[in-house]
Each structure stands twice: as C-alpha cells, then as structure tokens.
Specification:
By secondary structure, the chain is mainly α. The longest helix is centred in the C-terminal third of the chain and has 41 residues.
Length: 322
Amino acid sequence: MENCTKDDDMLQNGIVVFQMVVYIPVLSLGIPLNMTAFWVFCCKLKKWTETRVYMINLIIADSFLLFALPFLIHFTKYNHPIDNLCFTIQNIYFTNMPMSILIITLIAIDRYIAIKFPLKAKILRSPLKSASICGFLWITVIIYSNLHPKFHERKEQFCLRKESIQPNYSTLFSIIFGYFIPLGIVIFCSVQVIKCLKKKKATSPHETKLIQKAIHIVSVNLFVFIVCFSPFYTTLLLRFAVDVAGACSLVSEVRASIQICACLANSNCCLDVFCYYFAAKEFQEFPSLFPTYISMTSKMNQRQESQPPTDQVMTQTRCSAL
C-alpha cells in the first residue's frame, strides 16, 4: 500500500512550537493540581461515594496522560522510530485518554441515575459497584491498547505517525465506541439532569442556590468535554476518510490538524481538575452532588406510596444512599 512520505519541515516545526506553547502550561498546572486533587479525594474526604471512586480513577488516568506529553513533543520533533519506548508511551497514551472519556461518561450516568431514579439509586449505585466497573474498564482498555498497535504499526516508520493510506478499521472502531457513543451518553444524561433540576421549585433561597450550582457544574462539564475531545476525534474521522479515498496529497495537512487538535484534547487532563474541583466542594457541603433535588424527588415519590416523612428524615435518607 502506498505511503505518503511528503513532509513539510516548516509545518512540523510549527506544530512542535504549538505543542510546547500548550503543553508547558498544562504540565505546569496539571502536575500540582492533579497531585492536590488526588490527596483531597484519597485522604481528606471521609466518606466513600461513587463520585469519589470515579474521581480517583479520573485523576490517575489524567496523571498518566501528563506523563506522556513530553514524549509526544519529542516524537513529533525528532521523528522517533518505532521501538520499545514508542510502544510504552503509545500504550500509556491510548489507554488513559479513552479511560478519561469513559470515566467522565460514568460520572454522567451516575448523576443521571441519582437524579432520575432516586428510589432505585440505593440498588443501582454503590462505591463497590463503581470500583468494579472502573476495574473492568481499565483491564479492557489496557488489553485493547496493547493489541491495537499490532494491527498497523508494522508498516509505519515513525512513532505515533501514520504515513500509509491503508484504512485502519480498528481505529474507526475506537473512534466510534471510544468517543462518539460516550459523547451521546454524556449529552443525553447531562441534558436530562439539567431539565430535571430546572423543573424543580426550590422551597428556600439556599435550595435555589444549590440547584443553580448543580446546573452550572453539569453544564460546564459537558461544555469542556465537547470542546476538548470533539475536534480531535472529528479529525481522526477525517483522516480515516482520506485513507479510504486514497487522497495522499491531503495526508500531511490532516495529520497536522490531528496533532493540533490532540493538544486541545490532552489539555483536558488539566481542565478536569478545575471542573471536578467543585465536586470536592460539594462533598464538604453535603454527601452527594445533588442532595436537594434528590431529597425533593424522593419525597414526592414516597408520598405516592406511603405517608410522607419529614423533610429532615428524607434528606438524611437520600444523602446516605449517595
């Protein structure tokens, strides 16, 4: 199969400069922020919850991504060959970015269940179940990332650089199941949560403030998720289309677009800390992210089944479930 070896040194040098402009601040902020977040979620918080389990796993995935960033710059600048170092960094990179996406998806699903089905949340949700799901995903993604390079890397010369125009259908599988399906899930869950929260009428200014804060957190998380990852995976789809069409003349430009969009996607490992920092603040105020709404929803559902308990008892019941 034909290889597109045309190279533009000026374009590659520009990409390296752009990577350094993005990655140096990301590393400078991301390392201390992720270390602090890991300490907060592992040591400072007393109660284990589903969100706490997901956050620890997300921080681990983001930390490994941070570790890979300097190597990405090196591979781009020096056309690093495919060797053991290349495979190691590649496996780290292609394990932890999908894990970050999947964990954010799990957080969105967990919120949706807690808000939409508060009475069933006790059965459907628990820290142990969250840890088991994360463990299963880690094993699955690690195995796939170790097998995935073997499908096409033997025909390439440089690390993390696809020059052949042979369509890689395993990559298409990764794009669809690794991002676009999770994207649909995150959008659906986030929109439903926001709709549910907006429908609720608060009984006090404090409840109004908590509901508005919850809506803001969900909205910001969704916005960051879409803005960071969508350009990268869209350009990967474009590269697949270029390979299918055999348009060798477009490979260099599309590859440059992928590398630029990857910088935005990788910056998510720093932005996650800002987005989910609010989750830690919520832990300090109440045991779950949305106890006000869950309390009110539970109370309404309970009234349909039996005599309503007091607001205080219902709030304590819902918080203990989360």
